[in-house]
Amino acid sequence: MKKHFLLTLLFLALGLATAGAQSYQMQVKLNNGRVVKFATDSVAEVTFAEAPVPQQAWALPSTQFGATATQVLGSVAEDTTTRTAQVSVAATGRSITYTYYFDAGKKYKYALITFDSSDDYADYIKFLQAGGFSADTEWPSSTDLVYRNTVSSLVALATTAGATGEGSYARIAPSVIIMPLDETTFSWSRTDPMQGAAGAWLPLLGNGSTVDLMMRYEGRMGHSVNTSLSAPQRGVYRFATGDSRWTETRYWYDTKTKQFLEEAAIYCDSTQRPTPAEVAELLTAKGFEATGLSDGSSDLIYYNRAEKVAAFVAMSKPSTGADDFVPNIHFAFMDLSAQLPPDSVNFPWPVTDYGVYTLDEVIAKFKAMPYYVSDTTSSLGDGFHQINTSSPDFPIIIAIIDGGKYAGCLVGTTDALRVSSPYIPKLLASKGYEKYEGPAFPTYVNWTDNKEVQIINMDLFSIGMYFVAFEPNERTKN
Hints:
alpha+beta; 8-stranded antiparallel β-sheet; 16% helix; disordered N terminus
């Protein structure tokens, strides 16, 4: 600064000395050795300003997504109340602060970078673009932006938007979030609305994700927060979508801290409810399966087993409170495993050659099976013989004898959930059986071998057992 002051005095002196046509030269020697000369009568003012900080001053936060706080930050402790940790990094001309966010399992999800000025924000965006991030211009928002780096598999969520209405609805801005590039259904960093059948889309469904992430998602969608109906103090947020059919999205955060996402829903106009087929198309394409379970209004419940997310399809008017009912699909993070058929079961595949063997001969065939334990007469009476198996899921097979020959069998379990396991239809399909529509029980036919299987998912014989029935096929193609 002393050099600058003396040089300024020199320039002033030169200026005072050049009262007439007389002109002097001033020269500036640069660090690279180059000398720049100016005629003093052509210089009106000399200003010394700090040079702009080069983009190289910026850096990306850690990209060890999925790692623990210790693995990412070393000795920096995570605040378990907010599930965050902050790290300040010295850079040329700046001190950069990253806020790292973790999920309930203490796994690193994303980093937030905040800026003191719009100039710093703009400079960081240039840094990202120079590093291979490209802007996604698909969304209507001009303030909530997406930049992707497909080489590094990263996404940057940038925003210049501040509060919308009250402070509880603010995006943290100006800021940039760095996250893994992941467009799957339950990703925190998903930017794809996953629009499907009947024009419906999925709200943000990242389990435990933050209010800030949700506000950015809804901002990109062009949805407007309803400040009169939302209740941040209770962790409830409602958005008007501007869509004539799917009119609203809602989010519910945990009741304790109001910070971590637990439920979300999309609502539709009561006169434009989707058909069951449209709902099935939307949800099954996004990883949900129909469970056969229903709520109090007989509406189906869909479920994603891997992520433990239930989708309650509330499309039927309830018997009470119908005037206040708005059709919706409500998503909740919950474990329904105990109420659902298991993903897989130990299924003892029986002898399926019908009309060939006598009782003694078929018992000999069963004795050769690795699951055979013993056999005995059946409580069902004449024409039935029981084979006991080592399967923990289907402990018995009842052989059916008709006209002295083996005519089929019943593979049995005492658990109604096990007989409805999705594993069984998959096993049947692998052996050439196709679903046959029409019968009351789920039915599958192998047209090549002319054999049939029915899943008896009720206690048909009142003995506390459920069966998969194997027999010759007598059906014709629909």
